[in-house]
Amino acid sequence: MKTLQQIEMWVMFCLLMACGHSKDSTPTAMTAPMSLETGEAELARDHVRQGETLLRQAISMAEQSGDWHTCYIACQRLAESLSWSNSEEALKLIKKAVKVYEAHPDDERNHIILLDYAGTYASQLAYNGNNDFSEALILTEQAHRLAIEEGEEDLVCQTLITLANIHWAMEDYPQALAEAREAENLSAPELLQGTLQVLARCYLSCDSLEQAEATYRRMEPGDDIHAAYIVQSNLAKIAARRKTPEEAEEAIDEAFEEMEALYFKALEQKDDYYQTTLQQEKENERLAYTAALHRHTLIGIIVALAILLVAVVWVLRYRLRLVRQQRAYEVAQHEQEKRHLQQETAHQQQQLHQVQEVVIFLQNYILQRSEVIRKLNESSSRHINLTPKDWADVERTLNAIDSGRFTRLRTDYPDLKEEDIQLCILTRLQLSNRSIGNIYGLTVSAVQHRKLKLKKDIFGEANPEVTLEQVLNLLDVQTEKINNL
After folding, report:
1. Does residue 147 fall inside a structural domain?
2. 3-state secondary structure labels for all residues of 47-96
3. Which long-range CB contacts under 8 A does 175-178 form with residues at least 24 apart?
4. Domain span at 51
C-alpha cells in the first residue's frame, strides 16, 4: 500500500509539472548573472528599453544576494547604455560601480576601466552643462596613475586619450595635443584609429592644418560610417581654411564624392542590417515554434505516462482488492470449517460420553447379575469364602467387560501371585477395604498395607496419593495407546 501511495504521489507530481509547463506565461526564475547576460543580449539586438530593464533588475537582485561582481558589471553596462541619453544617471551608476568595486576588489584592471568611464561621463556632463571639469580630471588622472603603476600600457593609452578629450573640452589645446601625442606613441593597433582622431582634432584646434590633414589621412574608417564622416568633413574644413579656391574646391568635391560613397555604403549596410534582422527574427520564430512543439510533445508524453501510471495503479489496486477479498473469503471459509469441526467434535464427544455411559451401565448390570459379585455385595460385616471356581467366574466376567485386563496383567507381570490378582480383582469391583478384609480375614490397615506393597513392588508406584485402582486404569490407558500405534 505504501508503494501504491508513492506511485500516486509521483503521478500527481507529473500532472502538476505538465500543467505548469503548459502555462506559457509563467516566467522562469532568473538569477542576477542570468539577468545581466540576457540584458546585454537585448542591448546587442538594439532592444534598448528591454535591455536596460533587465540590467536594472540584475543590479537589484545582485544587491539583494550580495553578488558584488555582477552588481558593478551591471552598473557599468547600464551606464554605457545611458551615456548619450542621460549622462547624469550614467555618471551616478558608474560612481556606484566604482564604490562597489572598491569595497570588494577583485582585479585592479577593472578598477582602472571603471575610473576611466567615470571620468568620461563626468566630462560629458560638464561639457553639456558648461560646468567645472575638476571631477572629470580627478577621476581620469586617478585611472591614469593606477594604469602606470600596474603597467597596463593599453589602459595608459586609453586614459591619455580621455585626458586629451577633457583638456580639449576645457579649450586647453596645447595640453590636449601633448597628451594625444603621448597616447599615439603608446597606442596599440586596436586603439590607433581613436587616438588619431583625437590627435587630428587637437592639431586642428591648434591651427596645425598640415599635421591635422596628414593625421586624418592616416585614419582608415573602413565600414565605420561615423568615423568616415568625421574624416571627410574635417578634410573639407581644412581645405576651406587654407583660403586657396582651387584646393578648397578639389577638397570639397573629394569630400562630397566620399560622402556620396559613404551614403550609398550606409544604405547597403542598412539594407544588410534589416535583412539580417529579418532573418534573425524568422530564425527566432522558427526556434520558438520548435521549442513550443517540443514543449507540447513533452507535455503530451508526460500526460500519457501519467495516464499509463494511473491505469497501472488502478489495475494494481483492483488486483490487490481481489486478493484481499479472496483472502477474506478463505479466512471466512476456514473459520466456518473450524466451527463445523468443533461442532462435530463436540457432538462426537457427546455421543462418546453417551456410549460410555451405556457401556458402564451394561458393565454394572453384568456385574450385578453375577452370583459371586452379588454374594460379595450382600454383607460387608461377615466373613466371605470364595472358591477357586468363584474367583475364576469373577475374573472371566471382568475380562469380558474390561477387554482382557487381567489376562494382560498375568502376561505383562508374571511375578504377580494369585492373591495379588485377587486383590486387583477386588479393587476393580470397588469393594471397600473392610469388605476385602472380610474376604481375607484381615484388618483394614493390613489391606491398605498389601495395596501399597503391591503398587510399589510390582507396578513401581511409590506415591501414596495414587490408589491401586488408578494404577490399574493407567495401565489400561498405556496399553490402549500402544495398540493404537
Report:
1. yes
2. CHHHHHHHHHHHHHHHHHHCCHHHHHHHHHHHHHHHCCCCHHHHHHHHHH
3. 176/202, 176/205, 177/202, 177/203, 177/205, 177/206
4. 29-288
Q: How many domains does the chain have?
A: 2
**How far apart, in whole angstroms, are the C-alpha atoms of residue 139 and residue 117?**
9
- Looking at this protein, which amino acid is placed at residue 180? A
Which residue type, as a one-letter code, is found at position 207? D
Distance CA 415, CA 399 (A): 19
Q: What is the pLDDT of residue 302?
A: 92
Which 8-state DSSP code applies to residue 6? H
How high is the pLDDT of residue 48? Answer: 85
Residue 413 in any domain: the answer is yes
Domain boundary among 246, 264, 288: 288
The angle, 0 to 180 degrees and rounded to 10, between the axes of the packed helices 2-22 and 245-369 is 160
What is the SS3 assignment for 135-202? Answer: HHHHHHHHHHHHHHHHCCHHHHHHHHHHHHHHHHHCCCHHHHHHHHHHHHHHCCHHHHHHHHHHHHHH
pLDDT at 485 over 70: no
Quick check: 219 and 193 in contact, CB under 8 A?
Answer: yes
pTM of the model: 0.48
DSSP 225: H
Q: What does DSSP assign to residue 26? A: P
